[in-house]
């Protein structure tokens, strides 16, 4: 675990000393957008037109943020248009690596590099900050378009529709306000909330994260008692953004990050909703528990010094979801 400082790799754990034990997530540094015609998106530079074979996605199958982009790639029929490299699940002193001695770790299929940080340095030799997945790389200009999953799934939602003919819309205009409101709460207290609880190095910081996390899961359970999906009767990006955290919850966050007031299987509506999303066409193929079990329990030796990977639980994600 480390980060780049002016282009130089520094092996260091997250700094929680200066924040009273709280984990503060770094902001993503590359924020341009692929658009249908190459016009600029909401942030960053223009010039990134949607074209088949031009963009390459770097992911970890362990990472919930990268997983969102793999789900949108599948939902939007982009698998033939955007190629993928998958890092090794172990993230140690060198950061994400392209070793291939783990089933499903592909190596760097573009350049044959050893470390993900080298991709960042190719784009920006003096880059500073954390070297995170996902990364959307433009092979035409040799730049990173974006390393922000929330933006990448919105690009995938619409920019390539002319190429694929798939105009399924997970961010419909009429629901923008509702989706943003759900996303804001879910991001802060659930997606990032599990990390804030797990990486806390003081009791106060843990308490400050873990209670809002379970308050939000109770709130979501109520929403899903009334509605099939988070924002009503159609599935949207708000559901997919929550799903990748829920998928990892009972096997990882409950134990490893001490988020153990309840499990997902204790919430009947949330657990049914989660199974429905898992069973959505194309989604199960993006789910790799071997990568996420290995990644968290092995890489975070501050939390789990003996790197023992626990046995379960082995819940049945293929059971009928009953959400019809
Ligand atoms: N805001 C980013 C966060 C991505 C992120 O934090 N990814 C984690 C893996 S789950 C990572 O690569 N961490 C490496 C590090 O922090 O050094 C996004 O949503 O794309």
TrEMBL record:
Active site (record annotation): 63, 195
Domain named GST C-terminal: residues: 169-296
Keywords, ordered alphabetically: Transferase
Organism field: Paracoccus aestuarii
Protein name (Swiss-Prot/TrEMBL): Glutathione S-transferase family protein
Lineage per the UniProt record: Bacteria, Pseudomonadati, Pseudomonadota, Alphaproteobacteria, Rhodobacterales
Domain of life: Bacteria
GO MF entries: glutathione transferase activity
Alphabetized InterPro entries for the sequence: Glutathione-S-Trfase_C-like, Glutathione-S-Trfase_C_sf, Glutathione_S-Trfase, Glutathione_S-Trfase_N, GST_Omega-like_C, GST_Omega/GSH, Thioredoxin-like_sf
Residues at which glutathione binds: 96, 130-133, 148-149
GO cellular component, one term: cytoplasm
PANTHER family the UniProt entry points to: GLUTATHIONE S-TRANSFERASE OMEGA-LIKE 1-RELATED, GLUTATHIONYL-HYDROQUINONE REDUCTASE
Site feature (Lowers pKa of active site Cys) residues: 253, 296
């Amino acid at each position: 675990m480390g980060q780049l400082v002016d282009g130089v790799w520094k092996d260091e754990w997250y700094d929680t000393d200066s924040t009273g034990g709280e984990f503060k997530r770094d902001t993503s540094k590359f924020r341009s957008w692929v658009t249908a015609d190459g016009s600029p998106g909401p942030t960053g530079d223009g010039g990134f037109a949607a074209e088949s074979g031009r963009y390459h996605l770097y992911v970890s199958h362990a990472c919930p943020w990268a997983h969102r982009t793999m789900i949108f790639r599948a939902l939007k029929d982009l698998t033939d248009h955007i190629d993928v490299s998958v890092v090794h699940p172990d993230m140690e002193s060198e950061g994400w690596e392209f070793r291939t001695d783990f089933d499903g770790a592909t190596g760097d299929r573009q350049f044959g590099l050893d470390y993900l940080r080298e991709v960042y340095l190719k784009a920006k030799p003096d880059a500073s900050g954390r070297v995170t997945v996902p990364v959307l790389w433009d092979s035409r200009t040799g730049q990173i378009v974006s390393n922000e999953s929330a933006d990448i799934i919105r690009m995938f939602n619409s920019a390539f529709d002319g190429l694929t003919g798939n105009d399924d819309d997970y961010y419909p205009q009429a629901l923008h306000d509702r989706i943003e409101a759900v996303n804001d709460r879910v991001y802060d207290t659930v997606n990032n909330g599990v990390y804030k609880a797990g990486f806390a190095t003081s009791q106060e910081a843990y308490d400050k994260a873990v209670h809002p996390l379970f308050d939000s899961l109770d709130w979501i359970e109520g929403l899903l008692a009334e509605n099939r999906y988070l924002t009503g009767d159609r599935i949207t990006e708000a559901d997919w953004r929550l799903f990748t955290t829920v998928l990892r919850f009972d096997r990882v966050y409950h134990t490893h990050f001490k988020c153990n007031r309840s499990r997902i299987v204790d919430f009947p509506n949330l657990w049914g909703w989660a199974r429905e999303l898992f069973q959505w066409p194309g989604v199960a193929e993006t789910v790799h528990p071997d990568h996420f079990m290995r990644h968290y329990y092995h890489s975070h030796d501050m939390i789990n010094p003996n790197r023992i990977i626990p046995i379960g639980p082995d819940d049945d994600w293929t059971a009928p979801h009953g959400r019809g």
